[in-house]
């Protein structure tokens, strides 16, 4: 994908650096077009180094290349972050007094503007009118986030987080998704649990929660009412979610078990994408464990298998249960051999298998998966961004859900 990233002159220009990295990590070619004023905040060298492309601000640079037309014509997606009050005004007026506004006039691709400015400027009737004009023309203008602004003031006007901007921008290119989860209630667990050792230490794992968050996002895009049970998922990962997803934060496997089962009482589908600890320290110390020389022995107790319990003691009859299996493959069998055995052992309706290790799976923005059914037979395979993979997973879940008699609300008893 060929993306143009416009950067206007605001302090939030530094966040556009992170946005550029995100877009590059997802494999997109990004041409950065800063305004001259924005170079006061982030310099040309940063943009050139991180994008690997030339950076110009004026229509009189690279005249032989006709840059003021070529950049906009070649764009498949145009994002401006931050979009200042001045940039919005110039875009609304249809001006072409620098390369960015000229590019905005020439481009015929989807355009997303992510505003950032002081609250007074955002609320001013001139800006309100400019935003309305741009939206009426089909330009997507994000609402700014609320919070601390450049000085001591706070309020609406902050640039949304780079993850949120990237999700919103790339969503403009997504094919229209079927509303096949409309009215369905979905619970997704994501992230990695932390099992307390003492007040400052825990046993954890490397799950970032990105795949689970993408699953929740994909489900909302298809019309579902989604509860995300998030185990230690970073704010920057959660920022990729549309507003409207109900997020329940948990820390340990036992917290997660209770939160998932409570939400699952009303759910049609439960997806266990979280990496839940298999063991926790048998006792957690109330005070910090001191170094005493030599070895420290820990005794661990097996945790409840939340997925297995959802199958054997369902909070709601007829609900579809989906598990995950991160596998490496070993001398005993391939990734798929282990997955097939796990599918039969766990008894979930579907098991999503992803190979991990060698930099695959954890913390990355792409994934490759195979979905197997309860008998271990392959239903589908997919590779791509975690959002694309998520839609492939929902494509496999929906027929199972549609084939299921509607659930009832007479929930089984909650675990003690
Ligand atoms: N899971 C769970 N509760 C646990 C452990 C795992 O619900 N205490 C769920 C995960 O959310 C995932 C699936 O079980 O959906 C697979 O987890 P995994 O750790 O791969 O399975 P295990 O049965 O622990 O198998 P292994 O021996 O390979 O670790």
Automatic annotation (TrEMBL):
Keywords: Decarboxylase, Flavoprotein, FMN, Ligase, Lyase, Magnesium, Metal-binding, Multifunctional enzyme. InterPro entries: CoaB-like_sf, CoaBC, DNA/pantothenate-metab_flavo_C, Flavin_trans-like, Flavoprotein. Its EC number is 4.1.1.36, 6.3.2.5. One of its GO terms (molecular function) is phosphopantothenoylcysteine decarboxylase activity. Binds 1 FMN per subunit. The keyword Nucleus does not apply. Residues 1-185 are annotated as: Phosphopantothenoylcysteine decarboxylase. It comes from the Bacteria. It catalyses: (R)-4'-phosphopantothenate + L-cysteine + CTP = N-[(R)-4-phosphopantothenoyl]-L-cysteine + CMP + diphosphate + H(+); N-[(R)-4-phosphopantothenoyl]-L-cysteine + H(+) = (R)-4'-phosphopantetheine + CO2. Its cofactor is Mg(2+); FMN. This is Coenzyme A biosynthesis bifunctional protein CoaBC. It comes from Cellulomonas dongxiuzhuiae. The gene is coaBC.
